[in-house]
Every structure is written in C-alpha cells, then in structure tokens.
Records
---
Amino acid sequence: MPLPIYKHVSFFCISKCMDKSRNFQPNEGEEEMKKSWVRHEKLCAQLEACSLDLKQNEAQMTILTATGGELKEKHKKIRGLLDEAKANGQQKELEELSKEIENVETQTRIWLNELHDVHDKRVDIDCQMIRLGSEVKKNETYVQLACIDIERMELRHEIRWKKFLQNNPCK
C-alpha cells in the first residue's frame, strides 16, 4: 500500500514546479480522521460505562427480587399467625401481629419504590445503549468510508504524481 499522500510530497519540489495558486495542505483529512477516532473512542468508553451500569442494575434487581421473596414469605407467615390468633381469640397477639403486618406493608411500599426506580434506570440504560450502539456503528461506517476514500485518493495521487514527475522533472 502506498504511503499517505502527505508523505509522498517533496514540498520544495512542489513549490518550485506547481502553480502557486493551489492551496495544498499536507495533512488534508488527517484532522477529520483524528476527530473521528477520538469520537469513536469516546463512544466506546460511554458504551463500556453503560455496560457497567447495566451490570450494577442487574445486581440491584437481583437483590430486590430476593428481598421481594423474603417480604412475601414474611407476610404469608404473619398472616398465618394472625389467622390462628383470630381463631383462638388472642387479642394482644392480634395487635402485635397487626403492627408487624403494617411494618411489612411499609417495607413492601419502600421495596416497590426502589423496584420502580431501578426499573426506570434500566429503561434509561437500555435506551442509552441502543443509541450508543447505533452511534458506534454509524461512526464505524464513516471510518470505513473514509478509509475507502483515502485509498482511492492515494491511488489517484500516486498516478498524478508519477505523471507530474515524468512531465516536470525537479532540478
């Protein structure tokens, strides 16, 4: 593969032999490629951060699922004891169990709020991952197209350069 355009050029020779009205830049396109790679790296870093957020969210969801199961079992156990206390007419135990049921219901409300927050965060993470994945693919396509363009430009440049050297030998 030929060297990039700007590495082929002898500026002394060009300044002597070429028309001075042409504004030639040796790193034409290089800055755009650098910007594209920086953007790609940033997108990949953001995607990696989203992946970590997703793992954290899954861990939170696992904890909340386990907590929900424990609350359900605790509620079921207290309900059973409450039914027994009603059947036996134990008023003091009924009051204690009613307070425990209220505590479990409070814990359940807190659990539901946390579950709602974690679910909302998960939806945000999923949307962000989809957006970033799309941006990464789009950026990769731009880079691939730019590489194809650069290869074509280098080939055309090589042909023109050879013709130029044949027609205008440097002294």
---
Amino acid sequence: MVSLVGQEAIDSPPLDDVGQVVDLYRHGFQIEPHTRTHANLGDISSEKAWEEVHGSRMDLEEKVSAAINLFAYPYGREHQTTEGNRELVKKAGFHRGCSCYGGINH
C-alpha cells in the first residue's frame, strides 16, 4: 500500500488525511516517509533535499508519536540515491533507506 500525505503533492491520487495515516499506524501498519512532496532528489539542491528528507521524518514522527527509521527514496533509482543523498538520509536519523534497484544503498 502506498499513500501520500503532505501539504504539497502531485494532483492525483487523492491524499490520505493525517487521521487515516495515524489510524493505519495504530492498527499495525508500518508507516515510513517518502519525502514531503515526492521530490526527485536527483534534481534538487542539497538544501531542498534536506528539507524534503529531514522534514518528512519530523512531520511523520510528530503525527504518529513514534520513531521513524526507514526512508523510501522517491523514484528510487541511482540518480536519486547518490552518495550525497544517502548521507542526508543518514544525517536525518534514518537507519535504512530503500530504493528500486539492486544492491545495498546504505
């Protein structure tokens, strides 16, 4: 199940509201961030990438009142999972990052 929650996101599909996400979490679903706006981390500045990555963790932890440790890279290809972006994910406090291509990201 994939869901988008945020202030800015693509026009469709409809966004889940925060209450739905919290309810899923309370019913045992693992909820992890995917940036704030589904930004392509390979096409934005490191400053904007930091806001997207770190901000998504802070936003979600506040909503579910729990530690968030896994990050899913939007688009998840090599272009988005550069060494610099992997370092941002680590700096933001994530323990793991996952992508769509083979191998270990970090």
---
Amino acid sequence: MPCDNEVPCDDEVEVGDEDEVVDELERAAVNEVEHSNFTVEDTEKRLEVGEIVENEYIAYGLYCKYAREIGFSIFVCSYEGKKDTKRSKSKINVYQKPTIRCNCEAKLRIARRKDDVWRVTTFKKDHNHDMFAPYQRHLLRSARKLSDEQELLISTMVQSKIPVMRAYDMLENMAGGRENVGFTPRDAYDALYRAQKTKMKNEDASELVKHFMDKSNNEPFFYWNIEVDDDNRLMNFFFRDYRCMVDYEHFGDVVSFDTTYKTNKYELICAPFIGIDNHNQNVMFGLAFLSDETESSFEWLFRTFLESMGGKQPETIFTDQCQAMMNAIGTVFPKAYHRLCQWHINRNAVSHFGSLKENKKFKYLWNKCMSYCQTEEEFEETWQKMMDNYNLNGQKWFQRCTSCDIDGFLL
C-alpha cells in the first residue's frame, strides 16, 4: 500500500493515541475547526508531511473533520490493527464479537520541534478497505461531538421541562437534518448525565466540608482533613471522632486497613482503619474515602492518620497485597510490622490456582502455609515444598508471594 514519506522528529505525538486523555482536545477542536469551510483537498494540503500546524488541538480537529468527510473513524483508522486470533483458537465455545480490523495503516502523526513549532511528520491517507457511505458518516464515533453551545442549549431546554428527545428534534430541524446535528440523542443523554454528576459531586463536596466544619466547632476533638487536585476538586478525605482517638490510644497496637469496598454513587474507595478491643470486638479508628489507590493517595492518608493520632504509629498493620499501599506504609510507618491479611491472600489466590484448585494435596500444603506453620523455618520449608512439587517457581503470582517478606504470611 503506498504511503507518504516520514520525517524524523524530536517530540512525536500520534494524533488520536488511545493512551491520551482527549476531552480537552475534542473541546478545542470543536470550537476552532468544526464549523470551518475547509474542503478535503484543503485539509490534505494542511496535513502534508512537513506542514506546520498551530498545535495538537488543531491537528486533532482537522483530522476528525477529514475522517468524517472521507468516511472513517479515528483514533487512528478504526480498521487499524489485526484480528485477535488467540480468542478464536480457544476451546471454550463462547460468542465472539465480529471485528472490522484489517491492519489499515492510515494515520496522522505530528511532532513538536525544539523551537515549539508543531509539524506533520507522517500522514498516511491510503486505506485498504471501503469507506463508510455519506448517510452513515454522521454516526462515526469521532464525528459525534457536542459543542459547548449545543450542550448549553440542550441543558437549558431540559431545565425548562422540555424532554431531551424533543430538544434534539428541534436542533435537527434547525440543522436541516439529523446528519447535520453533529451528535446523536444518546450523546446528548450522556453529556447531560456527566454534567449532572459533576454538579452533584461539587455540591455534595461543599456540603461535606460544611458538615466537617460544623462538627469540629461542636466537638473539640473531632478531626478531619481533605485533599484536592489542581482544579480544587475533592479527591480524598479522612475523619475520626473522639471515640476513635480513645480507642486507638488503648487498642491501636494492631490496625487492619482495608480498601476492598467502593461506593457506587461517587466511585470512591472506602478505607476504614479497624482494630480489636479487649472484648474481641471491632472498633473504628478512622475512616477515609479515596478517589484512587495510588502511592501518593496512600501516603497522604497515612500521614493524615498519623497526625490525627498525635504521631503514634501502629505496631502492626494488616493490609492486602497492593504494592502502592506497601510502599506508602514503608515510608510513613517505618517502625510498624507490616502483615498481609489472610482473607485477601486466599481470595486472590483462588484465581491463580488453575487446575490445582481441586488438588487436595496442594490445598493441604497451601492451608498449612496460611494457618498452621508455627515457625518461620517450618513456613519456608512447606512453601518451598509446595513450589517444587507443583512446578510453581515460574508462576509470576507465586513468585511475587515468595519475594514478599516471609513474616508477612505468618498471621
């Protein structure tokens, strides 16, 4: 298949790379390019190898508009890549979704030089498949976008009790047909949902902070802290009351930290600090909600917890096998003994057992390692016997368990 020349570059970006966050690109492209009068020939000239483009946003917008006019969808061509043959060879009789991938190499690549000028370095415009017909092109994913004005107009009509479909019909009449609207009714529903969700989060976050401030004014020992991102949006928060502080003072030598559960409404991770009192009952030392499970979030939380308890570190802390969590514990609680929770280990292990799941002798050795080894030497001997007998030394998950501090398994 013929293709244009490629030019070496300093800082390359493949327009539409799926690893990029493209929301900002799409917004800027819609505002600056969507309503331009460029023809296909004009766009091809602007995207020739060596041509200067204003920035990556304009390049993305031009390529989106070009793709719609020609009849394909981006990021890269939607026919890019090859069919996954591994699944088709599976012995399991399952439905496989049809694929349209046929290794199409059409793409646009730009680069920013050291002088901050963006140039086109690759523009492959030849496809090895048929293009979508004109009556289908407005349905292509990369061709469907709401401009800020369209989203505001629909939102205003919905607030005035006009149903979304009725509002869409009005836009369709104004545009002279559904193919000229630029998005589908489903896109309108999705945009309104995202806007409402963002508004709800912001309003509820403000109410949460107000609640914490009221609590701290009425309860002198109530402690709370929040973390926000660069846009001042709430990311993580932690709180504990006087009862938590007293319980930690008496029973905080051993702490269990669990991030198993996630809330549905806000997609936040519930992260309680739990202990055991003298009646063998669970007690709460504090509660956090996290937006992610990164090392930086855990470090912020553990430092916040430490500050709320007057700098007193736990002697032992039980967690799951999250590497980011392990790293943060080593940084913030260097004197604490870190142990892995048996419940989490067993839950994760089942998916790695494979055919050994039903092997009684293997399960005996595994259960002995988890619950019945009295010394470190006995654990090491039993673990190595299990690894050797069942040829597990090459299995990544078991290797990872082996690389962990052995003390972590002695629960």
---
Amino acid sequence: MKTVGIIGGIGPESTVEYYRLIIASYREQKQDGSYPSIIINSIDVTKMLGLIAANELAEVTLYLADEVQRLASAGADFGVLAANTPHIVFDEICRQSPIPLLSIVQATREAARELGLKRLGLFGTRFTMQAGFYQDVFSSEEITLILP
C-alpha cells in the first residue's frame, strides 16, 4: 500500500476534510476495516501567506519544497497540497519534489470534464482568484471559469 503525504495546516479545515475523504474513499474500496497510510505535515500558514502577500514566490517554493521533502523523508510515496492557494507555485514545487504531487487544479479540471461541465464557478482566496493558475490549467479545455 502506498503512503500519501499531505501538506496541511494551510487551512486546518481543508486538511481534516482531505483526511476524512481519503479514509472514506479507501474504506469504500477496501471493506476489510483497514485504513490507508497517511502522513500529515502541518505547516505555518502565516509564514506561507505572508510570503505570498509579499510576492516572494521563490521563497514560497523553497518553503513548500522543503516541507514536501519532509513528507518524502517520513515515507510518503506521493503528496498533495491541502489547499488551493499554494498551487500558485505548484509547478515549481513539482520540479524540486522527490515524490509525485497531485494537483487540486488538475483534479478539478478532470472532474469537470468527466461531468461534462462547460462553465464552472471559481471561489477562493484573493491569491487563488488573481494568480491565474486555475485559468492556465483550464485553458486547454472547453470549460469557462466564472469568477465573481
């Protein structure tokens, strides 16, 4: 069984929700009462958001890449960032990551495509709404993103 690593603490609520959904999905597939192996690395949200607000994206990348390295060192086979905002530097983190990372943005695009959606509302932090990383990923699809 592979071990998932979660970069959490960006929003404790999203970290808890990821954990809950991973457990629920696993238990639907494996009905033997077992649980998946999960490692959670709770990061300092104030530090990360401060770096983003100061437009220190290279520092955000280094900070998050170091935290992903911790997951890998702890035994994670792959990882996820349990929030949208850090995806502002997702591609850069992936280039430095010793383990594969799953993208919320790409997973959202795939789900929208599978559902046949043509228009999708995007709500999030100011950073998520303004950074353009959702728009970049969705630009290859015929799905229009609607922002408030």
